[in-house]
Amino acid sequence: MAPKKVYTGINIQFPISELIISGKKKIETRTYPVPDKYLGQEMLLIETPGINGEFKSRIRAVIVFSSCFEYKDKAEFYKDVNKHCVTFDSAWAWDDSKGKWGWNVEVKEVFNSPLPLKKRTGIIYSINLSIERK
User: Fold this and answer.
1) How confident is the model at residue 123 (pLDDT cuts 50, 70, 90)?
2) Separation of CA 11 from chain center
3) Which residues 6+ apart lie within 8 Å of 65 measured at CB?
4) Domains, the chain, ranges and CATH?
5) 89-124 CB burial, b ≥16 within 10 A, e <16
6) How many Å apart are CA 76 and CA 15, to the nearest integer?
7) Which of 3, 22, 87, 116, CA to CA, is 20 to 30 A from 131?
8) What's the pLDDT tens digit per position in 8-23?
9) Cβ distance 60 to 45 under 8 Å?
């Protein structure tokens, strides 16, 4: 049996989660920077169903946010559309009143089968999640 490791998880809605797992989405976007304590740290990608998923929240992968940066404006944000996959008509489109941060994301491991969550997760981050991992 593999040893258990403890992680912090981050909630990412389906189908955005699939874009990250596939490697198509290299930049996660948020309206705030990655908290320093999570930069460079392995985290669990918790896939939440959003409005399109027909499943319960689950653990899909181990990811790392290597760095983050603030987009200066809407034009700069949309120059990276191929990296963050957020289109003009997306629910996560640019909002002048909030701005956007780009979080460079790297997938370290994708689980062959999603892992069930054994405890209720937080709205954004979930702490002290333990899983068996090689």
Assistant:
1) low
2) 6
3) 28, 34, 38, 39, 40, 41, 43, 103, 104, 105
4) 4-132 (2.30.130.30)
5) eeebebeeeeebbbbbbebeeebeebbebeeebeee
6) 24
7) 22
8) 999 999 999 999 999 9
9) yes
Single-letter residue type at 3: P
Task: Label residues 21-49 b or e (16+ Cβ within 10 Å = b).
Answer: beeebbbbbeeeebeeebeeebbbbbbbe
pTM score: 0.90
Q: Give strand pairing partners of 65.
A: 39, 105
Q: What's the chain's length in residues?
A: 134
Tokens for 85, please give them. 């996959």
12: burial class by Cβ within 10 Å (0-12, 13-18, 19+)? buried
Name the phi and psi angles at 77, rounded to 5. -60, -50
pLDDT digits (tens, 9 = 90+) for 100-110: 999 999 999 99
